[in-house]
Amino acid sequence: MPGATETIEHRVRVAAPPEVVFEYFTDPAKLVRWMGSEATLDPRPGGICRFVINGAAMAGKYVEVDFPSRIVLTWGWEARLFEVAEESTAVEVSFTAEDDGTLVRLTHSRLPEGRAVPFHRAGWDNYLPRLAKAATGEGPGPDPWADLSVVARAIQAAER
Predict the structure, then answer these.
(1) Residue 139's beta-bridge partner residues?
(2) By residue range, what is the domain housing residue 38?
(3) Tens-place pLDDT, residues 102-151
(4) Is it true that the peptide bond before 18 is cis, omega within 30 degrees of 0?
């Protein structure tokens, strides 16, 4: 069906309070610790959210910023990777205090059917564990997605 979209959901537990984890989505220096190499962020409704991941620029805008519990932003690729144009999809992230940490729930919606879904599923599978390490002060190490062959294998695995 042309125009059909899908939603993917992810959860990760982070051993840091919501106030700390939230900043890893709004502070450019903190964001690039776990995802991307450069970022321009203006975390307010209508503000820019743009960062570069392995040479590809994600371009979106913040829709909702409710410190420290929720962020909603549009998401897309300047190069229109997998038919995902700038600001064409939505990412909603909630931060829930849980014991001595935070449950991060990420929902990525309006993804066009096809390869965009396994690509973004594999991407979040790669990056959210890196967030969990970075937000606790641990270095997440080199990004395996810097090697495009790793990206291709992750997509193939996610398509199964």
Answers:
(1) none
(2) 5-159
(3) 999 999 999 999 889 999 999 999 999 999 999 999 999 999 887 767 66
(4) no
- Give the chain's domain count: 1
In the block, tokens 């709004």 appear at 26
**Distance between CA 40 and CA 77 in Å, rounded?**
14
Q: What CATH number is attached to the domain comprising 105?
A: 3.30.530.20
Is the backbone of residue 87 left (phi > 0), alpha (psi -120 to 50) or beta?
left
Which run of H or of E encompasses 90? Answer: strand 89-98
Strands 38-41 and 48-53: antiparallel
Rounded Cα–Cα distance for residues 15 and 142 (Å):
21
Q: What is the pTM of this model?
A: 0.91
Is residue 123 within 8 Å of 157, Cβ to Cβ?
Answer: no
